[in-house]
Structure formats: structure tokens, C-alpha cells
Amino acid sequence: MPRLILSRLVFMVLAGFLLLSFLFALFHMIPGDPARLMAGDNAPEELVQSIRRAYGFDQPLHVQYLSYMQRVLMGDFGVSNYTRQPVLEVVLPRIGNTAALAGCAMLFAMTVSLILGSFSAMFWGGPVDKGVTAFSLVGICTPVFVTGIIGIYLFGVYLRWLPIGGMSSWQHFILPVLTLGAYQAAMFTRMVRSCMVDALGRDFITTARAKGAPERRVVFHHALRNALLPIITLFGLGVGHTLGGSVVTETIFNWPGLGRLMVDSILTRDLPVMQGAIFFFAMIFILVNLLVDILYTWADPRVSYD
Amino acid sequence: MRKFFRDFSRDPVALVFGLILLGIYIVAITAQWIAPGDPFETNLRNGMQPPSWEHWFGTDQFGRDVLSRVILATQVTARLTTLAILFAVVLGVPIGMMVGYHGGLADAIVMRITDIMLIFPMIMLAIVIVVIAGPSERGVIIALGLSQLPEMIRISRGVTLSLKEELYVEAAVAAGARWPWILRRHVWPNISTPIIVQATLTLPVFVLNASALSYLGLGVQPPTPEWGQMLNEAKDFLINAPYLIIGPSVALFLFVLSANLVGDALQETLNPRTKSRRITRRFYRVSRKSALS
Lengths: 306, 293
What we know:
The structure holds two protein chains of two kinds. By secondary structure, chain A is mainly α. Chain A has helices spanning about 1-30, 35-40, 45-55, 60-75, 85-120, 125-140, 145-160, 170-200, 205-210, 215-250, 260-265, 270-300. Chain B is about 75% helix and about 0% strand. Chain B has helices at about 1-10, 10-30, 30-35, 65-100, 105-120, 120-135, 135-165, 165-175, 180-215, 225-235, 245-270, 275-290. In chain B, helix 4 packs parallel to helix 7. The longest helix of chain B is centred in the N-terminal third of the chain and has 37 residues, at about 65-100. At the A-B interface, helix 1, helix 6, helix 7, helix 8 and helix 10 of A face helix 6, helix 9, helix 10, helix 11 and helix 12 of B.
């Protein structure tokens, strides 16, 4: 276990290093002059020249690369082209907001899917099962932005029950979390159901039933426990998926998170913020993958990553 | 082939949604002719009209007929996703076959690269591509195609690896056939079925992601209509013209639903597996690829 964690941490550092190099290359692959971009289209030529000198854009590439890496290692990702705020100050609070949204959506999706999936498997082939299956099929076929817009119209515009943008109170959480969570719930429900159907077909279930255990106990005690292992893996993969989905959700509901920052910085061509946002988003993703791996070896000691 | 159609037509759900999917593609191909109005013609005095016999889905803020725009968007989406799938197949299958056949260092390097690509969600890749190529249709095609590339390489490599052990391949080698001939003549015919299945399973994911990118403003650019982009515009007029979201949402839902069901049915007919395993595979695929929507 410690060896696994250590090797994964080394991998993370390596991946971060590669990512930074890639982002540096990206900075230079984008068509257009970065100094001109910072100065604005109508800026006088002297200003562009002075920016070029101040930021070292006139230096040879390898010198620029070294100084960029040096600055980043000191935690200096530069300043935003527009607000002149340090990128780190812009990005860090956003991470918490995204985590709050994605975390709540994950909790919602896990709860709903465990309940629906178990009941669906319990009444396998019956009307409940068919209903749940149809619901989850509709769910995975409806993109987040359609659910979100319908939710905004229904609860925000028509009924006027809920706020539709920002995150200043707990009510602001309801629509975004439900929107993002519903899609995940639909996807998870399919998985939980199939895992449970699989588990309920095993021999030990027949044994439990033969012993006269009540059906509720058979399903939620014997079957669910044994189905839990694949389900944990799926939930783990789902965390990454939810983070990806949060980009669209944050854009719909004006949520001040990392995903929206990333999209906004691209649309406004704010290169330093873009680099910082992409870097942290990718690192979070790698970190989540690492945690899932560790959780998995903890849940099933038979799995080893040597 | 006849057996395939018989199996396929025995499943009524698959048959119905197969016909719907076929209908969607016919609409896409004939979009220019069947659209009732000009999808680009603006008429400000006619803006924001609720649905009527003349304009089934109403008109948008510029007075453009939403139905015509939805129909043209069908064509845009069908074109985008088809090209993206072709991109992944044309690039991925030869690479997969070659590294699978030759093995060695190139194989190791290619497999490590696909491992790394699979770690990151599709959106990271898409965003980086869009940054380089600029928000455009071309950017979406490359981003979607690249996101599916590792999967295509893995499938074709896996099949090639197992075929290498087959007697007829060994016989061809003994007969002095060169590797391009062997790959084309003996390996490719066996790869086409899993590739077709994979491509169908990818279709709904691509449709969802293409429209999500366009919704974010990173994909198809106005005035070209695209469902996600139309929804993004319609969102600003929810109070006065909520009917604007009907057309694009229904079209998007129908396309994704029928593509999903047809993909499932196709997989069941072409390479039957137990159901639970199929869903598990699906989840892995979906969770990696459609991290956007």
C-alpha cells in the first residue's frame, strides 16, 4: 500500500511536469502574438514592444521555458490579462466551489442509484424494474444542458421557487446539484441494477433464501454487500465524470467554479488564467484517479498494483 | 448478412428506433430541400413567434424559422459525428494493426500514450484542441476523433494480436506474403465488425459531446445552427419564448436515444455477450468519453 501511494505520487509529479511543458508549448502554438494579445488590439506598437520585453517573449524559447518552469514552481502562474489578479488567487477559491457542486451531485447520484438499482433488481422483470430502466435510459439520453434549461424554466421562471444562478445560499445548490446529479444517477442506476442482478443470481442467495431469510435482508444484506465492490469502482470512475459534467453545469447556472473559469478564459483568450485553470483541473483529475485506485485496493485486498 | 437482419428485426424496439435513426439521417441528407424556410433568413418584425402552423417550433429572436434551423442542425451534427468517427477509424485502425502485428518498442510507446490519453476526461482534450484550432466545426471533429482514438487503437491491436497466432496468418507468412498484404487481406476483414460496433456505440456519445461543446461556445459557431448552440441562445429568452427550446431538445434527445438503442441492439446481434458485461463495458466507455454531458 505505501509503495502504491508512493509510486502514484511520483507519477503525479511526472504528469504535472509533462502537463506544464505541454501548456508552455500550447502558449506558443496558439496563433497570434501573446504580447499583442495582452496589450489589446488597438494598443500602440511601443506598448506591445515593452510588454514583449517585460515578459521575456523576445528571449529564445529554452530560456523562456526555464524561466516559466521556475516561476510556476514558486507558485507564480502570472496575472490575468484582464483583472490583473494573480492567477493562483483567481483559481484556488474556484476549486472549492467546483468540489462542493460535484460532491453534492455525487452524493445525490449515489443515494438515488443505490435505492433505485436495488429495487429494480429485487423486482427483476416486473413493472418497477421496467420503469426504473426506462427512467435511466431517458436520463442518459438527456444532456445536462437540456435538463438544466428545463429545470430553470420550470422552477426558476414558471414556478419561481428557486434561484437560477450564483451560489450565495443553500437554495442556489438545488438546481445545479439535481441537474448534474440526475444524469449521474441515471448512469449509476443502470450499473447498480446490473451488479445487483448479477449478485442475486449467485448460489449464496439461494442458500440465504433456503434458510428462510426475509427478502429485504437477502437483497440489502447478502446481495448488496457482495455487489458493492464493482459498484465502488463505478462510483470512483463517476467522480471524474461528474467533474467533467460540472463544466457544462457551471456554465448553465453561472456557478463560480473551475470549469466555468476554464471556458470563460478561453472565450476571452485570457492565456495565463487558461493555463492555470487547465493545469489545476487536470491535476485534480489525476488526484481523483489516484484516490480511486487506493480505495479499490483497500476495498478488495486481492487487487494489487505491482 | 441475412441472419443479421433477421435477428435485428426480431427486436421490435431496435427495429422502431433503427427506422427513426434512418429517418434522422434522411432528414440530414435532404436538409436543404425539406426545410420549410430559409434557416438563415432574418426577419426582425417576425421575431419570437410562438409555434403555429406556419412555424412549427416558432421563430427565434431574429425571426428565423426554428424548424428549418433544427433540420439544418441535424445535417451539421450528422456530418460532424460521421467525420469524427471516420477520423478515429482511419487514424486508429492502421496504427493499432501495425503495432499489434510488429510489437516491440513502437507497441510499448503507443500503448503508454493511449494510457495517458485515457486518464484525462474528454473535455480537457477538447478544450486544448479548441484552444489551438479555434472554436470551429473542424476543432470539434478533431477533438471528438482524438478522444476516441485510443479505443480504436486498442481494439484493432487486440484483434491483430490474437489473429497473429492463427494458422492462416502463419501460412501466409510462410508463403512469403509481406505484412501490408497480410494486414489488408487477413486481419482487416476480422477487425471490421468490432470496429463497426464500436463506432455505433460511440455515435450517441459524440452527438452529446458535440452539442455540449457548441453549447459552451467552443464548437460550431453562429450563424451555422447546432442544437447545443441553439439551446444556449434560447436560454436567454426563457421568460418570453420558452418554446424555443422544444425543437433542439427533442431532436437531440431523439437522435441520442435511437443511436443508443440501435448501438445496443447491434452489439447484441454482432457479438453476443452476457447483458451485465455489456452494460459494464458501456459504462467504462461512456464515463471516459462523455465527461462533458
